[in-house]
Amino acid sequence: MLEEVKKRLGITGDYQDDTIQGYIEDVKQFLLDGGVDKEVVNASSTVGVIARGVSDLWNYGSGGTSFSPYFLQRAIQLSSKDSSDIERENTDKNKENNKGDENE
Question: Which secondary-structure segment (H or E) carries 75?
């Protein structure tokens, strides 16, 4: 997940990896504590909201001390999902990928 979060935030190199990984763990724990299923937190489809949370934490040193409204809204939405939703999303994604392969 570290590499995907870094890519979404435009961060290259490994100098800040420990800091970013710490923020990832903080965001994941926030989601878990808020009632998001562990499987949902660890799903590849959740990396976007985790990257947003990491960005919010990364920038809090510049004066802000809270998660963005977008992050909080997505966290609330994710709290209503469970492992069956993740399975369905993965199945749908695989079907879409297979359609693309057939068209080539």
Answer: helix 69-78
